[in-house]
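Obj: model holo form, ligand = calcium ion.
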Amino acid sequence: MKLFWVTLLIIVAVGTAYGANVAQGANARQSSTWKKMYTADQAVDGNTGKVFFQDTCTHTNCKDKNPHWTVCLGEKHTINSVTIHNPDKAHGRLKNIKIEVFETDPSKPGAVAQPCATIGSTPVAAGIAVTVTCPINTRGQYIRISKTVTSWHNYKCDALLLCEVDVDGTPYADCPKGFQRNQDSCYLFADDSVESWFEARIACQTMGADLVVIDSQSENDFIRSVLDAGDQNCKYIP
Ligand SMILES: [Ca+2]
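Output (holo structure tokens):
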């Protein structure tokens, strides 16, 4: 997340790495485990190898009619995309998949699903990784991958198998008091006059932030809308 200060304008952002895999090592669980061997944690252990009997993959029970796998990130994130590493022994099983994001534990009452993406009835090819992108501003701390079982498979069951799940996300914290949020950043539109760009930057940095650098049309639109709504006399935008 970024924090910005403008002003007479300054804005800042608290920066965190963008595009990081935030699922690795997180707590994971699944609806059932085949042979008690192919446990949920093996989809977030950092081994993206897809050789099922050699690498680390999950596998739900063959009799599980509602197979699903869930990872808890431990805190709220903006979820950008999810990558599923499909095992070489997938046998056409990675299909009819629903990927959802929740702010609260989906196994508890009241949890609200935010749709991220689906994989339809055409199976993902064995031994490849597939990436799906969530709608903008999809946020939560739980990601659930569930499968609709439509028929018994030639290989005796239509289970959910995952060799690894990468979640591209950014921590989403509340903005400090006085800041305004726009997507993953927090902005402070300060009224304080400053003598120079350097003074402005030091003021930002003392708050763990920095002067705004407008790097997208949406960010520009946000700042413009705030300025247009107020009576600030914008003298400087770095
Ligand atoms: Ca793995």
